[in-house]
Fold each of these.
Amino acid sequence: MHRTLRFALLLTAVSSIPFVCAQAQADTTRIKSVEVQAYFSKQPLLGLTSSASAISGEQVERQQTITLLPALNTVAGLRMEERSPGSYRLALRGSMIRSPFGVRNVKIYMDEFPLTDAGGNTYLNLIDPLGVASIHILKGPDGSLYGANSGGVVRLQPKGFDVQENQMQLNVTGGAYGLFQEQLSIQHKANERYNFSFDQAFVRSDGYRENSSLNKKAFQTAHQWRYSPQAELRVFALYSDLGYRTPGGLTAAQMAENPRQARPAAGATPGAREQQAGIYNKTFYGGVAHQWQLSDKLTHHVSVFGSTTDFENPFMTNYEVRDERNLGMRTFVSYVGRDQGSVQWEMQLGFEGQKGWNKINNYDNNKGVQGAEQAKDKLDNNQYSFFYRAMAKFYNRWTVEGSLGLNKASIAYEQLFPTVANGTGDIEFDAIWMPRLASSFLLTNNLALRASISKGYSTPTIAEVRSSDKQVNTALDAETGTNYETGIRWESRNRRFMADLAFYSYQMDNGIIRQLDANGADFYVNAGKMDQKGIEASVNVHILKPQTHGWMRDLTYQGAVARQFYKFERYELAGKDYSGNKVTAVPDWTVANTLSASFAQGVFIHLLHNHVSSMPLNDANTVEAKKYDLLQVKAGVTLPLQGKLGIQLFVGADNLLNEKYSLGNDINAFGNRFFNPSPTRNFYGGVKLML
């Protein structure tokens, strides 16, 4: 076994959870218990009935803050990829085979507002990491409470809510390949009733490869107004103007010859640089949430939200323009019962619904300029769920909870150009009941066992029903499956050590698989049955108790290991039988090791190591991406200036081992163009002002 794996498994052998504890502050000796925003309230991680994780804002800043990728990849079972700057993919207990870019199978929220739109897509790359206060992750299907998902739920908590003190932060970073980043974050508590935040960011990069430049401007604001002792109003708004070039995949020979080149021309098809291939996304997202304490037991929550997106994608063979509009509402009533003889209980009843309007037009791409019309389609979709949850806790030791959701989705389509027979229609996905039953039992005050069974459900997204091959695919079915899971958590009395071990088995029917045609356009098919089993282990250790004196003030280690046994149980396509093969784009092993240390005089250093084993890149398992070990480091010093004013100087390095690897590959690529080479060893540095 690889020595990195032996080291990580040794540290996690006692038992562990996919969780990341908030970094202890150097000026305190108190280690706080980890809490996760799960199932309508914050709950202690130890007794939670699900596999979960919490990532603090401090952890997001431990490495380069251009992307959430380093922080998210410290969580066992969660994997984020980057094919080029700005082009990200995310999978939670799943494969990248549904993700040409963006997110599939996972429901993502910003506080109470779903970022996942009515069409099932999430533009995670619009979010600036500095505007995120914390990240809470629930693993495994949770369709009973959060609508269509089969991988899990990710909840981003923006800055601006629950502000305790005034803060201002300005970051300026520069680095290799023309990197420049500026971030401004302001959090202000006007009084006990009103607080807000404003976050602004700009980043540009020339990129490691030809035709891989990035330009992004993001603005975000959040407001919280407690206008009465029983009620509060929350407002969130985001505007992002994102543009990045896409260099395209290379063959193994092309990567060996020149890994920095963009996809070259092939026959009559021009290359990525000639066609100025890229993504341009201008999105406004807004939401308003209201909470009203009707009585000491009863609370009502309601949120309304919407978004508008102007999307352009010049590609090798066409120029796609999308106009997307979304509107939705989420509301629930929560009833918390009084303690009845050592029994605590609560229940929630609610509804979440979204409607989307999508216009998708394709034109000839004349070297980055729109040409003649190729296709025009209109797709409107509806998605809604009703949900109910009940939870009881007996003697503060045994928690039992059950939830049930009814999910329904549909798509109405109209093919406007070229005109075809039967060019209009409806795609109806059957209403499906989504149950979840779970329990957690504290054997001691520090050791908990848990088990759950839940149903997963994920409908095809708009981008899969009407993909870049310009066809409306009415044959795609929704993914469904049942997840069985058990786990154990242990936390030391002084909270300096916490560990978790989780086992799961998810049997998926109608798994959706990405395919590419001869022109590089993608389309999707159902793959029959997929067997997804896994083991996840995590550990968090405060090697040194946080202290305010001495040359070393804090030293923590976090480890996360995931072993995934994923295979096609039944999958036949175009006369070929892939049954028994490994599921495409799933590594057998992923390992994350994080070591953070702070010293006297404000000196700090953060080390992050990621190991990803080899993985198949096509359904036939004939092409593999090689394993790699990615080592990153960030170090600096924080100096007080005057009053509350402070300055931090930092430097960092990426890919210290100078690995030749591809952080994001093209799946089932036509012409063997699988690889998107990632940067070699590179450096950055910057300054942060704090008030």
Amino acid sequence: MVGVTDTDSKQTDPYLWLEEVTGDDALAWVRKHNDPTVADLGGERFEQMRADALEVLDTDARIPYVRRRGAHLYNFWRDATNPKGLWRRTTLESYLTEKPAWDVIIDVDELARADGQNWVWAGADVIEPDHSLALISLSRGGSDAAVVREFDMRTREFVTGGFELSEAKSQVSWEDADTLLVGTDFGEGSLTESGYPRLVKRWRRGQPLAEAETVFSGSESDVVVAGSRDRTDGFERTLVSRALDFFNEQVYELRDGELIRIDTPTDASISIHRQWLLIELRTDWSYRFQNYPAGSLLAADYEEFLDGRGEVQVVFTPDAHTCLHHYAWTRDRLVVVTLADVASRVQVYTPGTWTAEPVADLPQNTNTTIAAADPLGDEIFLDSSGFDTPSRLLHGTAGGPLSEIKQAPSFFDSADLEVSQYFATSDDGTRVPYFVVGHRHRQGPGPTLLGGYGGFEVARTPGYDGVLGRLWLARGGTYVLANIRGGGEYGPTWHTQAMREGRHLVAEDFASVARDLAARGITTVEQLGAQGGSNGGLLMGIMLTKYPELFGALVCSVPLLDMKRFHLLLAGASWVAEYGDPDNPDDWAFISEYSPYQNISADRRYPPVLITTSTRDDRVHPGHARKMTAALEAAGHPVRYYENIEGGHAGASDNPQIAFRSALIYEFLHRTLNGN
């Protein structure tokens, strides 16, 4: 074995120095690996694919997705002229035209030039309901940590002497025009072990940040503590919360200086809208002599529930095939998207009776999501797309008629493509669904790319991807999406059974899909590649070290790989609930069975692998990718490596970087799986 050989990784890890993110030696190692990868994978086809990808990413024909704030629809937009982006707005009347008239509020490219900083847009918190002020978050190079600066929407200028926070993973909310609820890096002891705020303070205009009043505090072992203010007229509330771990949270209302616990299960997700409390269960719950299964969505009168006298009503109950995917409020309706064997359905519920009406006239054979909903009105935007069907944006009212108002262009010829759904059988007999986007007239197996994630209850659903289409499908490749356990495709139990000691199920499911593809003659081992990022990058590391005989190539992006030290690096402590605690011998017993960095063998044949990451990723430490590459090389395995100096956890911070990285990946796959 190569890598960590006993529990004291600091003493035994020969590549620990690669965890020095910006250390001179570490960055020299990065450049030494980047240069040959780019030189080797470069060439005419690479340049053509990079240009194709950039055309998809930059085209003005994309749908500009919006959210309503008062009388205006807001959008953030990147293109070839504005690679860092424009924050802009328009009216509905103009938006419905073919070429809306956009009012640019902030030009991030211009701001970056003026400030001499590589700003990446990280969002805006605009005060409700008058939209006069905003808190603008800007990240250097795409990291999660950002600076926050107050912006006057009336003058279009940053407020001199206004609210401003230094770079941190801050949590901020407007309490009123002169007061913020702030969680940030206040100094020693103010952050959790995961690197997020541990304190919520009330910061008044003109007051030094150091003098802000603490209104709520959590433990260093919490993941994050946050505060927010609901400014809905007649339903004003201040809420504070502490995430005990990634999946458990305590939420309180701060009322007249008193903390009132909203006594729902800590692992349930809650939503408070006007007088309603929604409770989404992750595990079974017994309440007032009634049993409610995991995956249910329940509703209660908020004030009555706080008083302990409220009954809960069932909004949605899952079954073996159907689960809750996501929902959004308008003022008087609840819009709900469910998945039935990973196919979406949309319904509108009326609060109180909780009767549901299906949304009519949705495009057939597409996946539909809620693009935006106005919590102060009745407006909704729905987006429908499929693997071979570009997005269509529908607009209307919740419970009323919808009309198609925008359609994205086709970026590749899909006439020869067909989408099928199959089920593989995992090692324990579980049926695992997967989609195949293949070529209708292909005779025999062909080069195939398999994607998967399998973690944190994230559901992977069908959707249009112009870059994948142009760089892979249009060039003869087949694409497969595996809906493995660990995700949320069948609700919370699809995830919870694959947590901690059940983690092996994720890999077994993915391997079963790989075998099924070969058994059906869709591909062969030599022609099968797989790709995953972040938690999906961990999955690729496990495929490499545990199932190398199933693949012809692997792409492993911004990955977790050293599971002995993941909890010590950046935000890693927040994921202990998902994976287990490596410092607990009982947990390490099952983590050590799959941790890729600890399971590299010099005696097995591994398929070629491309590992990519970002220096500026302050969520998943780039040391994972660096050390894995070094250990693989030491064991004599073929590995290519590329690290973007910018990009954050997304691996790229603007469209040119995304296009470059995409071309690099698909060039590697074409060469390896197509043999050319």
